[in-house]
User: Which sequence fits this backbone?
């Protein structure tokens, strides 16, 4: 499981999460992730001016629990039993 990126939040109003360049998400595609408690969340990928973001209602619900100073880490997660499963895991610290 390799870390894709991490980000420490500085503001309380987190409407979307900017993804690092090089992440290949399609516009409007749904990204399912598991958090550290193994809850599953669905986010929408938004592309704007060549930049990718996680957003949408799923992200807004998830982000309600994030406070300034929290760090979010996104990992690639390979699942040999579910090859078509979205390979991402989010950890908030």
Assistant:
């Amino acid at each position: 499981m390799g870390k894709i990126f991490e980000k420490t939040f500085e503001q309380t109003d987190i409407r979307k999460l900017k993804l690092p360049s090089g992440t290949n998400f399609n516009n409007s595609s749904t990204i399912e992730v598991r958090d550290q408690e193994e809850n599953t969340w669905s986010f929408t990928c938004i592309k704007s001016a060549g930049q990718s973001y996680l957003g949408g209602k799923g992200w807004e619900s998830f982000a309600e629990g994030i406070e300034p100073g929290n760090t979010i880490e996104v990992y690639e997660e390979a699942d040999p039993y579910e090859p078509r499963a979205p390979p991402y895991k989010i950890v908030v610290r």
About this structure: The domain at 3-92 is CATH 2.40.330.10 (At1g16640 B3 domain).
